Amino acid sequence: MRNASTSGVDTISNLPCNVLDVILGCLPWKDAVKTSILSKDWRYKWVTRQELDFNDEFYKSFKQDEEAKRIIYQVLLVHKGPILKFRLRNFTSCPDIDHWMHFLSKKNVQEFTLIVRIGNKYHSPHHLFTFQQLRYLELQDCLFHPPLGFKGFEKLIKLDLMHVTFDSSILTNLISKSPLLEWLRLRSITNFDILEINAANLKFLEFIGKTKSISFKNAPMLEKVTVGFLGRRLLTDTSPVCSNFPKFFHYMPSLLELDICGTTLEYLIKGGLPENPPTALNNIRTLTISSMSLRDTEVVSSAVYLITSCPKLQDLTIEFYPVGDIVEPAVQLLRPRSSSYGAMKLLQKVQVNMFTGLEMEMEFMKFILASAPVLEEVSIWNFTRFLFRSCKQMIDEMKEFRRASANVEFTFEEIDMEGRYEHEEVMEVA
């Protein structure tokens, strides 16, 4: 009679290959290799693993990088079949990476991640640009220079670049020559005068960095945009390439979610606010404005303009940038807005972060409450040490505000500096 453990191994061995790949792919490397002792049939199954992930957990298993490097060489040497996903994080040796990339160029890689940790940026090897099956590419701390004649990644769907250096024309060509691209994230990459987005299937864009202008030349499917311009040096630039509202929102007919920071708003309003709002704002359901300083009345004015120019807005998040004192000009600008009854017809939910209780912030809340006839929920939070008044004081004052909505539930949250909730208070205003 066969024992239960042998029967179990046979059962696993008879599973379909794709199921075995999933099982092996979920195991840490040492555990995957240990499956070779299960039975004769399992001795070499791990060498067909289609997902190779050399992540932080992998490196923690070794005292020195040389040991980890030796294991990677051994794994690649005995590997059989395709490698659909390859991830290499926090590695330091460029020559070794070049050798591995040459090996991978013959393995039909579809998802590739390379994050290096060296003093100077790593030159992406020539072999990377031969990955014709590539669907997902993530690079960090690299110099990106395709060879002459590079025709793009025809199957690329997702591109994630951070601290990557290249010429602006290279990025423009990479985007335009990746016809299936749907997801694009660019963080702290090379500074550009103009970042041109020409991607017919793009649905998601996140850009955090420095540029004088973002041009959406062709983005008919774009649904979510996150933009944060870094640094204030560009704000003094008056050159013709500078962004403004009409240029930025030129062609995004499918836009549903917009996440923008106060510095970006400050930059976009350099050319003034258009009398007629861009049509790209017509379908926005979710809007986030982060790091918004109430010290600058132009930024406050542009934020109000943006909020009231989204007729289908349902979910609004505002994060105030601490200014530390009462700013009378902002109060004077917001006060007349409190009479704009019903301007935000569909707004249902408001999240306000870094709310200290200053008069100018309370005026902003007056404006929101008076403008949203179907508002249901307002959530407010800040760190306890930054509050200028208690939750009860803020609640008592807001009870007196004019409200367009008959029923609004307020949630006030105080959090200590270690992230623990010190106080939470909920009130329903009817």
UniProtKB/TrEMBL annotation:
<dbReference type="Pfam" id="PF24758">
    <property type="entry name" value="LRR_At5g56370"/>
</dbReference>
<dbReference type="InterPro" id="IPR036047">
    <property type="entry name" value="F-box-like_dom_sf"/>
</dbReference>
<dbReference type="Pfam" id="PF08387">
    <property type="entry name" value="FBD"/>
</dbReference>
<dbReference type="InterPro" id="IPR055411">
    <property type="entry name" value="LRR_FXL15/At3g58940/PEG3-like"/>
</dbReference>
<protein>
    <submittedName>
        <fullName>F-box/FBD/LRR-repeat protein At1g13570-like isoform X2</fullName>
    </submittedName>
</protein>
<dbReference type="InterPro" id="IPR032675">
    <property type="entry name" value="LRR_dom_sf"/>
</dbReference>
<feature type="domain" description="FBD">
    <location>
        <begin position="340"/>
        <end position="413"/>
    </location>
</feature>
<dbReference type="InterPro" id="IPR006566">
    <property type="entry name" value="FBD"/>
</dbReference>
